[in-house]
Design goal:
globular; about 500 residues; mainly alpha
């Protein structure tokens, strides 16, 4: 009896050592990837800041509005013709690694072959629609050549999407980072003279230049180890399953982007292209720039959960670790953003863009809900549940469109910021229910408490901005931000310290 109890204890200790040994390297990998891509994204943000600053100065709000229309058009077309390769292929390649190098090489060839198909579909599709798109957005068919140029950017983006999926799935994060750096710096260097010399006519040219430089960098930096992978028509067949999931992702992304395109078109006709520019500037601050940092973490998280689909307990561990890490990271960033928001607008744009302050003051709160909802949303995607993913994302897009139109009519740009917060909260509730009842994936009690505390902190900070003198609101938010930064550092340090002895004993 005593021997059985002792064996049971040893078995429990062994499992603890096993999971501890797994958790410690995982935490280190997250920190490594986050540090690499946070630096890369910071450089990308800096280049984008410089670019948009000169666009705002040389091309004014009209130029920013045209930039937003072109980028949204590319995004919408990518979702329609991109076959979801960027997302679905990472899942397939991450799973293929466990079946040996030969099979992985074969699947890389499959991904590259389908990337060529997606490139041709996107390029020809957007070029064919260039004239009607020019009529829809500008009531001027003479602008068609801008959309034709964007068709070339579509081809380059699709080819690079396949390579970046290979980088991500094979954990070649440094190569992916270098390609991003070269694209950001090269695109900036070439774009600025174009803006100065050609004005608004240079916008489509600057977009294709950035795509070209990034694609060339990606091909030059790819691992020669995988160059022997077969790219041909015959290699398309093994990717049919991947493309089925990708098709659901494409439909979902297209519908979401279409809703965004409908809103921008409605805003352009209801208000003005300059108002679209203000909206685009605000969305860049609260969605794009914050999303870049978040995406640097997802680069590592998505392949990891895709490779552990058969281990629900491990997935729950990864999810809660990710949520805690991101909330402790983003909440102080949110507070610092609120403190310096006016200076940020001056720095990135100009005094002409100050009307977006109410929009970004409310809109930045969405970060709290987005951290949790996107982490859970990645699990739906990793499970390969394309139909569930499409239904949830499409419902979310329709809700966002309705809220944006309604609250803009009621409150203007400030209403759009409030709409973003309500929109992302509803999406969080939706994906939480799906993950809980369909996949039995739950947030821990501590993760839920931290989410609530961070949300209360965000809303409380905005309330302070509107109700007390500026010096008091800045003081309170600075103190709370420092507390969060301390908790973030302590979380990382205590996690390493507590896991290291067990990890060493396991080894």
């Amino acid at each position: 009896m005593g021997e059985a109890v002792e064996n049971k204890k040893q078995g429990i200790k062994g499992r603890i050592r096993h999971y501890s040994a797994q958790t410690s390297p995982t935490s280190r990998k997250i920190l490594k990837v986050m540090s690499i891509f946070t630096g890369v994204e910071f450089l990308g943000i800096l280049c984008s800041m410089i670019k948009m600053k000169f666009v705002a100065l040389w091309l004014d709000a009209l130029g920013v509005g045209i930039f937003n229309i072109f980028n949204t058009t590319i995004e919408t077309t990518t979702y329609l013709t991109g076959l979801g390769i960027r997302q679905s292929s990472v899942r397939e390649l991450a799973s293929a690694k466990s079946r040996g190098e030969g099979y992985l090489r074969k699947m890389i060839g499959v991904v590259r072959s389908w990337s060529v198909v997606a490139a041709l579909l996107g390029g020809m599709g957007l070029t064919a629609l260039s004239w009607p798109l020019a009529e829809i957005f500008f009531d001027d068919g003479s602008m068609w050549w801008n959309f034709a140029i964007l068709g070339g950017a579509m081809i380059l983006n699709s080819l690079y999407a396949g390579e970046s999926a290979v980088f991500q799935a094979t954990e070649s994060f440094m190569r992916l980072a270098r390609a991003g750096i070269i694209g950001a710096i090269g695109g900036l260097i070439v774009s600025l003279p174009l803006f100065y010399l050609l004005g608004n006519k240079s916008i489509s040219l600057s977009i294709i230049v950035y795509s070209l430089i990034t694609m060339i960098a990606g091909y030059m930096l790819r691992d020669k180890k995988w160059d022997t992978s077969d790219v041909s028509l015959s290699s398309l067949r093994p990717g049919v399953k991947m493309i089925k999931l990708g098709a659901w992702i494409s439909i979902t992304g297209f519908f979401s982007a279409l809703c965004q395109l409908v809103f921008i078109s409605w805003l352009n006709r209801t208000a003005s292209t300059a108002e679209v520019g203000l909206y685009g500037a605000g969305m860049t601050l609260v969605i794009r720039y914050t999303g870049l940092v978040f995406n640097s973490v997802i680069l590592e998280f998505y392949p990891r959960i895709s490779a552990n689909l058969s281990h629900p307990r491990r997935m729950n561990l990864f999810i809660n670790h990710e949520v805690t890490l991101l909330l402790l990271l983003f909440t102080p960033l949110l507070l610092l953003f609120l403190i310096f928001r006016e200076w940020i607008v001056y720095l990135l744009y100009s005094a002409e863009f100050l009307p977006i302050l109410p929009f970004i003051t409310w809109g930045i709160i969405l970060i709290i809900f987005r951290v949790v909802s996107n982490t859970l949303g990645m699990c739906i995607l990793a499970k390969g549940e394309g139909k569930i993913y499409m239904l949830s994302e499409s419902a979310d897009a329709l809700l966002g469109l309705a809220l944006s139109i309604w609250l803009y009519n009621e409150m203007g740009l400030e209403g759009l910021g409030i709409a973003l917060v309500i929109w992302h909260f509803c999406y969080l509730v939706l994906v939480s229910l799906i993950c809980r009842y369909r996949y039995h994936l739950n947030l821990s009690r501590n993760s839920v408490i931290l989410t609530v505390v961070s949300a209360v902190t965000a809303f409380g900070s905005v309330a302070l901005i509107y109700t007390v003198p500026q010096v008091w609101s800045i003081t309170v938010m600075s103190v709370v931000a420092m507390v969060y930064i301390y908790c973030f550092v302590r979380f990382l340090f205590s996690r390493r310290k507590s896991r290291t002895p067990l990890s060493q004993s396991a080894q």
